[in-house]
């Protein structure tokens, strides 16, 4: 898809990223319902369509095959109207997204959320360090134009509500690039 095709989309594509436990799926699901955009949870897609190269016992997750994921999503992304929910952003083509949201959560809140999910100590530490150092925000800024990357606080229900209002307004006001 060329930049020119990007202009033909009638609805925007949004990437919602962030460390596990920051509220990506909650935010993406609610936003999809509020805006009638399609929610694509990449983790679920990887499992459903076997878009992985096996299981990583150390990280306790699938090793996703980025090429297979991109091939699977290409037509949907060209069509537009998608909210892609995934922790990272580095392997998706820049042309796919009109907005890249990085959710951020206070480390004590995040620690409790991930502990409640039963994360192992090493997986817990890895994710908390990722959040402390802002790895995913930096990744987004390195891979997308900075003017489409936004960091949103996601500690409380009030934060999520505010984020929903902000993002719903953004979708309502979005128009294809001229």
UniProtKB/TrEMBL annotation:
Region (Disordered): 1-27
UniProt cross-references to SUPFAM superfamilies, sorted A to Z: P-loop containing nucleoside triphosphate hydrolases
Highest taxon of the lineage: Eukaryota
Chain segments carrying region LID: 116-126
GO cellular-component term (any): cytoplasm
Location of region: NMPbind: 41-64
Compartment(s) of residence: Cytoplasm; Nucleus
Major subcellular site: cytoplasm
Binding positions (ATP): 21, 23-26, 117
Catalyzed reactions: AMP + ATP = 2 ADP; ATP + H2O = ADP + phosphate + H(+)
The keyword Methyltransferase belongs to this UniProt entry's keyword annotation: no
UniProt EC number: 2.7.4.3
Single Gene Ontology MF annotation: ATP hydrolysis activity
Biased composition (Low complexity): 17-27
GO biological process: ribosomal small subunit biogenesis; rRNA processing
A Pfam match: AAA_18
Keywords: ATP-binding, Cytoplasm, Kinase, Nucleotide-binding, Nucleus, Ribosome biogenesis, rRNA processing, Transferase
PANTHER family listed in its UniProt record: ADENYLATE KINASE ISOENZYME 6 (PTHR12595:SF0), POS9-ACTIVATING FACTOR FAP7-RELATED (PTHR12595)
Family: Belongs to the adenylate kinase family. AK6 subfamily.
Role of this protein: Broad-specificity nucleoside monophosphate (NMP) kinase that catalyzes the reversible transfer of the terminal phosphate group between nucleoside triphosphates and monophosphates. Has also ATPase activity. Involved in the late cytoplasmic maturation steps of the 40S ribosomal particles, specifically 18S rRNA maturation. While NMP activity is not required for ribosome maturation, ATPase activity is. Associates transiently with small ribosomal subunit protein uS11. ATP hydrolysis breaks the interaction with uS11.
Subunit annotation: Interacts with small ribosomal subunit protein uS11. Not a structural component of 43S pre-ribosomes, but transiently interacts with them by binding to uS11.
Descriptive protein name: Adenylate kinase isoenzyme 6 homolog
Organism of provenance: Rhamnella rubrinervis
Organism lineage string: Eukaryota, Viridiplantae, Streptophyta, Embryophyta, Tracheophyta
């Amino acid at each position: 898809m060329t930049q020119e095709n990007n202009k033909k989309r009638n609805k925007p594509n949004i990437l919602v990223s962030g460390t596990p436990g920051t509220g990506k799926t909650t935010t993406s699901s609610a936003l999809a319902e509020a805006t009638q955009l399609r929610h694509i949870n990449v983790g679920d897609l990887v499992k459903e369509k076997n878009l992985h190269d096996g299981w990583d016992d150390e990280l306790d997750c699938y090793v996703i095959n980025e090429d297979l994921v991109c091939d699977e999503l290409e037509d949907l992304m060209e069509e537009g109207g998608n909210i892609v929910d995934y922790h990272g952003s580095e392997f998706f083509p820049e042309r796919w997204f009109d907005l890249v949201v990085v959710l951020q959560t206070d480390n004590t809140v995040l620690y409790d959320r991930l502990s409640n999910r039963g994360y192992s100590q090493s997986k817990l530490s890895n994710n908390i360090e990722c959040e402390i150092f802002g790895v995913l925000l930096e990744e987004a800024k390195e891979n997308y134009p900075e003017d489409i990357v936004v960091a949103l606080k996601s500690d409380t229900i009030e934060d999520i509500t505010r984020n929903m209002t902000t993002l719903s307004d953004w979708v309502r006001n979005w128009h294809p690039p001229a």
